[in-house]
């Protein structure tokens, strides 16, 4: 665990790596406000909202970070698009940037890059290469007092249920074995008499001193999202969240309000009702 990561008992990660991962699906189309298609929208939210850090690819940080230098960043060092389906080829997210390049960008642009992250698709036939990338990234992050975050996603033709509770717990344990400060996982499905949050409690224990944060998933009504988040923290013992679409899918004012509501639950221990008031106040 790095000195910097120990500062964060709870972590509110604003996850914005979808421009590569999902292409333009989340940013343009029916019912999506036109302003969301502009990458600057993501950074405007980060600059005015309440977050622990914004995660996006290092290239995006270099393009927009100098104009939003007050934002703390986690540089995503690998990515892949979703064009090639798993049925055609197991996923492999090759590392695109190094920790050293992230440090150079931090110095060159005078940015607050506080961490680095990488995705690992456990169960892919290429998992050995991604595990090696992740292990090296974590080690380099520790040497440079950067937070390390691993996106731990079971995925591949060998994976029949990527939301299986035991599999998610296993992925959390792998992140601990690699020495990561945080593991980002998808919430498991209800099964074997356990709710999603109860399976997260198993995963949180399996993660040991690696802190678990949950992906936000598809855009759902704010109250439903905040209810899930509350349960993930208070039943699942997670250390926070990694939310993208449930923030940036809204116009700027509403998106900022969502960061405040999410942060209220994640960082302040607020109730669902107190958090939802922050969203409804901006809608009024």
Would you give an account of this structure?
By secondary structure, the chain is an alpha/beta fold. The protein has one domain (5-283): Aldolase class I (TIM Barrel), CATH 3.20.20. Helices cover 42% and strands 15% of the residues. The chain has an eight-stranded parallel barrel with strand order 1-2-3-4-5-6-7-8, surrounded by six helices. Helix 6 links the parallel strand 5 and strand 6 (182-185). The model has no long low-confidence stretch (mean pLDDT 96).
Topology (SSEs and partners):
Elements: E1 11-15, H1 18-21, H2 40-48, E2 53-57, H3 58-64, E3 72-76, H4 99-109, E4 112-120, H5 127-143, E5 147-152, H6 165-177, E6 182-185, H7 196-206, E7 211-215, H8 222-234, E8 240-243, H9 245-248, H10 252-268, H11 272-283
Parallel strand pairs: 1-2, 1-8, 2-3, 3-4, 4-5, 5-6, 6-7, 7-8
Helix pairs in contact: 2-10, 6-7, 7-8, 8-10, 8-11, 10-11
* Strand proportion: 15-25%
Total number of domains: 1
Structural class: alpha/beta
Topology order in helix (H) and strand (E) letters? EHHEHEHEHEHEHEHEHHH
In angstroms, what separates the terminal alpha carbons?
43 Å
Q: In one word, what is the shape?
A: globular
The CATH class is Alpha Beta
Mean pLDDT: 96
How is the main sheet built?
Answer: 8 strands, parallel, barrel
The portion of residues assigned to helices is: 40-55%
The CATH superfamily is identified as Aldolase class I
| Structural Rg | 18 Å
* Unreliable spans: none
Strand order of the largest sheet: 1-2-3-4-5-6-7-8
Count all strands and give the number.
8
């Amino acid at each position: 665990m790095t000195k910097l990561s120990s500062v964060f008992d709870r972590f509110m990660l604003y996850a914005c790596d979808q421009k590569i991962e999902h292409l333009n699906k989340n940013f343009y189309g029916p019912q999506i406000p036109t302003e969301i298609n502009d990458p600057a929208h993501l950074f405007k939210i980060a600059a005015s909202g309440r977050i622990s850090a914004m995660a996006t690819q290092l290239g995006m940080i270099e393009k927009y970070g100098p104009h939003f230098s007050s934002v703390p960043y986690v540089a995503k060092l690998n990515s892949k698009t979703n064009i090639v389906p798993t049925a055609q080829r197991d996923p492999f997210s090759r590392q695109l940037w190094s920790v050293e390049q992230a440090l150079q960008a931090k110095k060159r642009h005078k940015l607050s890059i506080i961490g680095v992250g990488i995705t690992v698709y456990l169960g892919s036939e290429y998992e050995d290469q991604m595990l090696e990338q992740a292990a090296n990234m974590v080690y380099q992050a520790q040497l440079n007092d950067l937070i390390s975050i691993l996106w731990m996603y079971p995925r591949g033709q060998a994976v029949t249920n990527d939301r299986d509770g035991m599999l998610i717990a296993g992925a959390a344990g792998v992140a601990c074995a690699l020495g990561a400060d945080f593991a980002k996982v998808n919430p498991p499905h209800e099964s074997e008499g356990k709710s999603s949050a109860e399976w997260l409690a198993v995963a949180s224990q399996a993660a040991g001193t690696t802190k678990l944060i949950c992906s936000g998933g598809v855009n759902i009504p704010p109250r439903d999202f905040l209810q899930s988040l509350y349960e993930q923290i208070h039943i699942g013992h997670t250390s926070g969240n990694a939310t993208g679409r449930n923030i940036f899918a809204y116009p700027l004012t509403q998106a900022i309000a969502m960061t405040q509501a999410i942060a209220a639950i994640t960082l302040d221990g607020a109730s669902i009702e107190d958090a939802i008031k922050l969203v409804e106040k901006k809608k009024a």
